[in-house]
Amino acid sequence: MMDPILFVMGVLVLLQTSPNLAMSQSGDGAVRVNFCCPDEEILRLRKVGDNLPDWTIQAECVRKKGAKNILEGIEISVLDSKNNQTEVKRTLAKLGNKMPKCGRGLRISKPNFNQTIDGNGTKQSNTNQSQTFPSIELRKNNESVPNASEGNVYIDGKPVCDDGWDKKAARVACRMLGFDDGEGIQESQYGTVGDNMAMDDVRCKGDESTLFECGYSSYDDCDEGEGAGVVCSRTDDTVSVDLSGKLIQLAQEVDTEHYCLALKIRELYGYWYSSESSESYDEIVTLSCDQCMEEVVCYYVRLLFEALSGGKGGITVRNLNGEKDHPSFIRNGVLRIADKNRDGEVQFDEFHSKFVEYLTILFNLLDRNNDGSIDEVLTNESIKEYSLEFFEHLLNNTVDFFDINGDDSISTDDFISIFPISDRKKDVKVTIYKLFGISLISLPKPLYTVHMLLDENQDEVLTMDEMLGFLRRTFSIVDKNGDCYITLEEIIAVLGKNKVPEDFQLGVKLIGQHYLTLAKYLVDGFIAKADTNSNNKVTLEEIVKFADFSFIDSSISIAKSMGHMNVPASEFISGGRNREHGYGPGAMVDWLTTLNNFLDNPVYQSEYAPQCVLFGQDM
User: Fold this and answer.
1) Of 8, 16, 250, 450, which residue is 20 to 30 A from 240 by alpha carbon distance?
2) Separation of CA 448 from chain center
3) How much is the mean pLDDT over the chain?
4) Distance CA 188, CA 597 (A)
């Protein structure tokens, strides 16, 4: 009879065994993974939707008589995570046939198996996973740079003209060089080129295998300053499988149920198909979902990041040659707020984290009852009334963005790197007049008064205390009912009290109501859609993970169609269609007079008496 203690211990050991390992690694040492399609079927990829981005494709299995998967039984290299990620040899075994369900984030990668198979199923060594073409090379200053990821593009020793050169053409060129993606560069950024071009007016769809498959002209009218260049990148630098069958991709683990294996994809009649056993297309590919592409917030943050980084993998103040570039407001600000490890470069994870931080601040402002949900926005006036706390957060983060020298203030020192002064003397303070060529005393009286009220000690340095004091006083004047929120109606009332003509008030009201109504409609729709578990609660996680792209596409279309400025009203209050108040200059006088009346309020000359929760303080 079996010892009960031994029996219980055995059961506990079985329960603690990893389900993935139990399913994915059999007793004979084979690694079990999902194959995308069963026998008698092959994988087909197809593009979907004209309004979706390039490379948005869907995968499906289609019938193919005689098709047989020859992946099972081949020997591959996998990672042994318990032994310092060393590679060990194992054979592939089928766990099942299962394809990942992706929306727009289908990712096709080439795993590092150090292995290929020919058309007869014979295993071959594969030390280079990327196919390259000897006809293409990258040069800098007309010198070939082996294994470069950026440079001017040369085909058969001749440069390519930048006429028509775009991201799609760059993608094709970079794939010819063995990379996954790329950005197009123009105007011979890596040195002048010869004027005998290999190609001109290159027109690619983006899915071609080589530039020769794109439309182009052999005749050119280009000069040495019109060379086409690329900045290439790898989206999947290392893709491997470990002993448990998990996919290791971009330093993340993908469980066996979330990816599958197939043979290399080939194109036929506008579709892409996996190879059959009788074909010689011998590379293995993995299909998985790019989670960032599946989430609205992450997707659009990535688009913004790629635009700011120029496809270089990170946001820096370095130019294409690695030298310090003339900085911009945007890149300097991004480095200031998002470069958490202070290495002089903002990676996507840092950029995305900062964006989610801003989103969290906005979420907390909308969550007035502090229950971790913003469902109350559907029933209150959150979109039509704005708190002092909102404006203080906005001010604080704006100053943080532009405060380049990190002294919690805004001064000329923060702009010198953007507008350099050639004859500046060391340790001599640069005045506003010296930097911008504007004398503050020459400004219209109300504008000069604003400066005087902001810069209390007149040292041309706006500290956070000075700016917060001005903001809080201004808010208290507008917030007539003292509820610590201001509305459009209160703004109109203040305009009337300070002698704004009634027809101007009507124009402001029409414009304000237009945008507030549109914003309320779009935000309410978003919050209702974000409640994915239908519990009448909308959490921050649900917003960050929001994946309904069809709603976003529809909302963008509505915003574009209905979000145009109310031209008649805006032209009227600016004097463009205003005979009574005079064209242009007459209307400007009215507005400056109103501002002057507003700034005469005694609140600006008195000690501020807090009536609302101040920034950074608890209730």
Assistant:
1) 16
2) 39
3) 80
4) 56
DSSP state of 399: H
How far is 493 from 237, CA to CA, in rounded Å? Answer: 60
210 token code pair = 């080589």
Any idea what the Cα angle at residue 283 is, between residues 278 and 287, rounded to 5°? 110
pLDDT in tens, 419-463: 666 555 555 677 887 777 788 888 899 999 999 999 998 888 999
73 closest CA partner among 41, 121, 39: 121
Structure tokens given for 244 = 């448990």
Angle in degrees, 0-180, between the axes of helices 329-338 and 296-309, rounded to the nearest 10:
120
Most distant CA atoms of the chain, gap in Å: 107
How buried is 78 (Cβ within 10 angstroms: 0-12 exposed, 13-18 middle, 19+ buried)?
buried
Q: Which amino acid is at 267?
A: E
Tokens standing for residue 74: 């081949």
Q: How far is CA 499 from CA 81, 199, 505, 589, in A?
A: 75, 66, 10, 12
For 188-212, give the secondary structure using H, E and C: CCCCCCCCCCCEEEEECCCCCCCHH
What does DSSP say about strands 31-35 and 86-97: parallel, antiparallel, or unpaired? parallel
Six token digits for residue 163: 């006429």
Residues 6+ apart with CB under 8 A from 203: 164, 169, 214, 215, 216
| Burial group, residue 567, by CB count within 10 angstroms (0-12, 13-18, 19+) | exposed
pLDDT digits (tens, 9 = 90+) for 327-368: 567 888 888 899 888 878 888 889 999 999 999 999 999 999
Tell me the Cα Rg of the chain: 31
Spatial separation of the C-alpha atoms in residues 186 and 162, rounded to whole Å: 6
In this structure, what token pair is assigned to residue 379? 């029933």
Q: What does the block give as tokens for 360? A: 């969290």
Q: Does the model's pTM come out above 0.85?
A: no
Return all residues near 323 (Cβ < 8 A) that are at least 6 apart: none
Residue with tokens 């058969």: 156
